[in-house]
Structure formats: structure tokens, C-alpha cells
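**Backbone description:**
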Amino acid sequence: MKYSGYPEVGDLVVGEVDEIADFGVFVDLDEYEDKRGLAHISEVASGWIKNVRDHVQEGQTVVAKVLDVDESSQQIDLSIKDVNEHQRKDTIQAWKNQQKADNWMELALGEDVDDDTYSTVVNGLLAEYDSLYEAFEQAAIHGIEALDDTDLGEEHVEAIVQTARENVSVPYVTVTGYVDLRCPSPDGVDDVKEALQAAEGNGEVPPEVELEVTYVGAPEYRIKVQAPDYKTAESELEASADRATEAIEAVGGEGEYHRERREDDE
């Protein structure tokens, strides 16, 4: 997806060096339709420059800061030297993410999708998210629920979610806690098993969360949760321990949740 308008002064843009002259560097702006900018030789690198080609090469991808925009003359003035390494890396990553999202849109809607439909879906996603990449990432994590507030039809929502879950690598975090389960009754073993089943969720765990309960050493059991973010992971960890505790206490037993092991793993 490319913007049809112009970048604004101060924006960081990604482009490809397509011509080098004695007075500066011409850059095709990758994110804008038919837009080209010029970085004067004084804006290519700090200090005195003897040969521009010592600093950039034709075909090189660069990140530049927009210094000035004159739409009447279609002139965009750029600075390559005003972009620090941190800004360059972040901008390149965002640009790569956008390229991925563009490919996912094509996979979701098909290569033959008409422009109006494509624009409708894109605008629907951007009305709720800052970028297409974020929209696909959230769809991969939360499924249809992530697109509930959009104006997209059911067919497009399902296509976006399916494509997201097949293609998006979702970042996950892992947290671990422990629950002690004791039950003195004659059926104590079975009661503990039922409490562990409760800890595993009984179908209550969200699809984006992976939860595993394992035996450590009586009466201690480990709960491991993998989720898209720490807030969700911590919440599901505590909920799992609560379910186990409530289940064991309901049959006269005792349950206790703690974050650290009582003893070192053997």
C-alpha cells in the first residue's frame, strides 16, 4: 500500500537511491506513489564530502528526514545525515512490517480484488489500528474478537483472521507459578486430579493462551502460561491457581498459590 499524497515535514521516510549527482542524491520514496525526493550533498553525511558515492550507492535503501515539501513544484527536500541509527532501524523495521502486511492483505483478499473493496477493508482496519501490521498481529492473537469494532463484513473478518493466524509470528511471553494441593479425604487422589483439570481451564482458557500444569513433587504443581503479553499471562496464571484452589477446597482440601518453588527442582 502506497500513500497518494505527500509526506509531512519532519517525517522519516524510506526510499531507494536511484540517481547520484554532484550536488546531491535523488531518492524514490517507497511509501508514496510517484514521489521522489532530493538530499542535497550537504544533507547526505556530516562533514565535508569529496565524493557522494563514498557515502551512498545507487539502489541503496535509505531512511531520510523530510526537511521541506513544495507540492506546487512537486519538490521534497530530504536529509539522510539527520537520521540516527536508532531511528533508521525503527523506520526500516516498520517499513518491512508494512510490506509484510501488504502481502497478507493480498493473501486475504485475493490478487483479483477490486480497488474499492481493498480500500474499504484497509480503511476499516486503519480506523481501529495504527497500521495494517498491528491489525493482523492482533487478529492473530485475539481472532475475530480483535475486529469486532471494525465495520468489516463477516467474510472479510474471517479472511483476515485466517490469513493472520497462518502467517503472523506472534510474540509471546512465558510466566510460571506453583500451586500446592492437599486433600486428606479417602478420595484425595481423585480430588487432586479434578482440581488439576480445573487449573487447566476446562475450556475457559482463551485461544491465544497456552497453559500447562505439571507435577513437581507432592503437594506442589507447576503452572506454566504462555500469552501475548505479561498482563494476560499473569491474569491467566492467577486464574488457573484460583480454579485449582476453589476445586480442592470445595471437597475439604487445601490449596495455596505461590510464584516460587518451595525447593529447588531436582
The radius of gyration is 27 Å.
